[in-house]
Amino acid sequence: MRIKKLVRVKSILRQATVIGGSATALLLFAISAQANSLIMNGGFGTLTGGTSGQLGYNITATGWTTTGYNFVFTSGEADTTGATGSNGNLKLWGPGDGAANGLPATSPDGGNYLAADGAYGVSPISQTVDGLLPGESYTVGFYWAGAQQYNFNGNTTEEWTVSLGGQSFSTPIVDDTSHGFTGWQYQTFTYVATSSSEVLSFLATGTPNGTPPFSLLDGVTLVAAPEPGTWVLMLGGLAVLRWRYRGRR
Known about the structure:
By secondary structure, the protein is of the alpha+beta class. The chain has helices at 2-36, 228-248; strands at residues 47-48, 53-54, 60-61, 70-73, 83-85, 88-90, 113-117, 125-129, 137-148, 156-164, 167-170, 174-176, 185-192, 198-207, 213-224.
């Protein structure tokens, strides 16, 4: 048992060394946010009407509302069996349907994830967040990626615009090759609450129309923004852990 624990610690430290301080801080924030998030069903795992499908058409996701062409896929489904929507079955390009683009079965958050068409039937997916303190800062964190609908060809672009109340930020625009997948990444935005109850929304934007470009989303969290000193403590703790492991080795 002791050997297994040491191997696990060694693996974590190697990852932290590779990804660097900033990315390590984001990783630590993502882990902490999962336990303290004000968001309901940030992983899209609680559904009504089925295990997958088009939101607002044949399924609903607890806490979320939308009228757009937005789907929820279960693990391993996006490039194999797909999901049913208002226009029939929909899949994404991936290893399961002939594209060696690295699309994994799940997102880094695991389980289900959202896929939103950014050029057809575009409408945000939203949730009302209560319990905010006006004037306080809050950080929204989420995993996201770009992909393309199966049986379509051509290069695409994808991005998300994320709004809380009247404040909006956009992710970088990612370029995706035909039949491609951009890979998952973690993003955070910090907002200042202006009311105790505000709407959090995610709007997918993609180009060109008819390709179709899909923006993927999972692991949505919203927590009180940590003070700068908190990041220093987290990274300092990681450095101490690494030093202690080296000394023990």
